[in-house]
């Protein structure tokens, strides 16, 4: 029997809490490297298979290629606690962007999803005068940070082009149904089922976390959060969503977009190889790894983790340096699968060509053909 | 009037039944406390001369001696403490400045004792240092903001990294001048640092020619007196530290009493034997930050930009803006010495009243440098009264890259913190140049004990960070989430940047 | 053979080696009892020589070509084949003290009760010599020569 109790959360919303004991979060990612699109229903199915790993306090999805008619606009998904927050945010967006379209995110009534906040999406392009010779993406990043930091009750859930994040409080399967994900078609999807440990479950705190076209889902706990957060603050990223996973999203934006590193190098920063191993590398590689550890020590993510990152170019999966969380990868017919458990993969692909467990710190990189890296 | 000198602080308690009249105590005490009376066949002790160093107690073969506090007391008075009364009597007699040794001993808040550490449980496994790698390797020096990799042929590092010091553990030996401490003590520090994989610091006494072989593990100091500073000296060290101040006596220069300036000291420091070595308060060529910048770059030029050049300052009220200025002036590391820092000789009133605790200093400097976006341009080394490995961890979590220890190192070698270093009569052979006494410090034993200390603390640090679910020291550095304050007020918590006990993250 | 060597740089002149040597060769082998009750008072076989700040402890060198063995009338002075130490057989020693006269180091002492001499015997039978064990500054070492 399932017992339920009601707890208030940070945004004042009430959610149910299931009291059965289960294991940690579940992750799933799937992309077609040829660029062919498929329905979100697939990943909902896969993540539902691993429901044992969730406790009903959060679920979420990221889809890429889902807004082909607005592919050059930034698709902002926003969560509002009340009308006031919506008003203030829309005022701010109108000032700085031209809004091609604004509408509530279509949802389906679901008794398992209690009291959802206001959920809206906007397709935007930044006003030239506001960007003012700066970089478009930096401008969008500062918009997101500003809204999250300063407008009470408003949170930007995703801010990328031709992609979107759908998340909430409830079992992931229910969240998937709530957002009618079967109606969207994308070439890459990620899905997450939550078992929050350090924080209370709330709508903004579910995974994935997003910034620009980055989305991050995470199973684990970040012991180095305190310093990762302070390091990122130097570069203008504010952590406002009460969940440690947030830092990983911003680290990717910093290291991949701003510092121009490829995913292999980023793997060496976030899950740095041990000094013993570095000592055994050939000269050039050793110098690089040593320099990376010296310069990016504060970006090392310590603590157990398995993460799946989504971006316009595909999906990437990485484990922590001593592999304390499960991650399984598989391939079949140009499709890359990443999952916490093989059962999730088998649910949507009964006989993959290859199945393997990636090494600690070695990223599994899915590349969209025709796109560089 | 009856000349009044204060009662002595210590009392010798001798168990006469156990005393075998071996006279080791009488022979060994440099303050001539004990004497053998052959007529009565007993040893008499003159308590007025005892400084409480406990050497006689340690050496007595039958454990017949106990050194106690002298029970002779003034009437209890919260304002007029014995120390306050006695200091006045001494000054009425001498007309001079009261000197003392070691660090501030007053009951100001020791913040280390108000900070608690985290451990991971259930959701995040703690890591077992006996079974998993636990990395304490630390680099001191200027770090680049970003790294460029050249992918044209084989991936190669394209960014030039400034010179760094590589430490196997984030603990180094702090500056103690040859002169304030003996040759054997320096030798032990140099050897232990070299063998363990860390560094020691010459202090302002220059580098004795015999120690040049330890150069690659030596940080050479350039202090206001410029004692012993020659081109060879600068080339010999692995890094150069410009000493602007020290925690025990912010605002004034070093002081080596003439009694301790023997021939070898005279040769190393390049000053006449027997004269007091008084370092001036400021460097007379550094009257502003631009002058400091000039000196930093002059030293870098002189050593062909091959060594990190840093600055050591005392922790004072404006330590944060001062540090910011120093980093912008080109320093590769800043060593900050808190009020508990030790010294061989300092005016007692300055030692006990000037300067702020290192805990606060690290917190505000680290925060300020991060706010200004320059934190990676210099490493922060914290100094000033680190007593145990937990102090070291807390310092790193607040934001330091590494810590300097000095008093702890001396205690490991025998010191009992009697605060009489300035007399030059250290019975343990540490803070003296008297050849009768310097023999007592066997560098083989001392090196072994120093390495043991470093090893013990390193193991404890590994256990504790493993407990936090961290296996690399860089994930602890500046990670204030791992700390909680207890018994501190709101302002103190805010200044330190830590949450109160009970608050989850 | 293993011999005791002094590192005079580290000898503090505390003379504890003398105390422990005497105690080791006393009847009670207890520091307090040996010095406060025993008769005759225990005599050390090691002696600390001092001049200014130089001091060092010296005892029988167990010479390869020992003059004391040649000088001994009765053959009491002999070399122990296993350890190579020069030892004195108490029963044979008649107290002529010729060995004391010829010893170039002056490390043989007159006996107390009996006239037989006393000198360093490397504390054979013990784990290590008492002076080496108890020197507080590790100035005495037992080494293969």
Report on this structure.
The complex is a heterotrimer of chains A (373), B (505) and C (145). Chain A has helices at 41-49, 83-96, 128-131, 136-150, 172-178, 225-233, 246-258, 263-270, 275-279, 283-295, 342-348; strands at 4-8, 14-18, 26-32, 38-39, 59-64, 74-80, 97-104, 118-126, 154-161, 163-168, 185-186, 188-193, 209-211, 214-220, 305-311, 314-319, 328-332, 335-339, 354-356, 364-365. Chain A is α+β, with helices and mostly antiparallel strands and 373 residues long. Chain A has a single domain (4-365), classed as Glutamine Phosphoribosylpyrophosphate, subunit 1, domain 1, CATH 3.60.20. In chain A, the strands form 5 sheets. Chain A has a 7-stranded antiparallel β-sheet with strand order 10-5-12-3-18-17-19, covered by helices on one side. Chain A has a 5-stranded antiparallel β-sheet with strand order 13-14-15-16-20. In chain A, strand 17 (328-332) and strand 18 (335-339) form a beta hairpin. Chain A is globular and about 60 Å long. Chain A starts with a strand and ends in an 8-residue tail after the last strand. Mean pLDDT of chain A is 88; it is low at 1-23. With 505 residues, chain B is of the alpha/beta class. Chain B folds into 2 domains: 10-96, Alpha-Beta Plaits, CATH 3.30.70.20; 138-143 and 169-500, TIM Barrel (Alpha-Beta Barrel). Chain B has helices at residues 24-28, 55-59, 82-94, 183-196, 231-236, 263-269, 289-302, 319-328, 348-353, 358-371, 389-398, 407-412, 435-438, 443-467, 490-496; strands at residues 10-14, 34-37, 42-45, 65-69, 99-100, 115-117, 138-140, 149-150, 156-157, 165-167, 171-173, 200-201, 218-222, 239-243, 255-256, 277-278, 309-314, 333-337, 346-347, 379-383, 402-405, 483-485, 499-500. In chain B, the strands form 8 sheets. In chain B, strands 11-21-20-18-17-14-13-12 form an 8-stranded parallel β-sheet. In chain B, helix 4 (183-196) packs across helix 14 (443-467) and helix 8 crosses helix 10 (358-371). Chain B is globular and about 90 Å long. The mean pLDDT of chain B is 93. Chain C is of the alpha+beta class. Chain C folds into 2 domains: 1-59 and 120-145, 2-Layer Sandwich (Alpha-Beta Plaits), CATH 3.30.70; 63-117, Alpha-Beta Plaits. Helix content of chain C is 21%, strand content 18%. Chain C contains 5 helices and 6 strands; from the N terminus they run βααββαββααβ. In chain C, the strands form 3 sheets. A two-stranded antiparallel sheet of chain C has the order 1-6. In chain C, strands 2-3 form a two-stranded antiparallel ribbon. A two-stranded antiparallel ribbon of chain C has the order 4-5. Chains A and B meet through helix 6 and helix 10 of A and strand 9 of B.
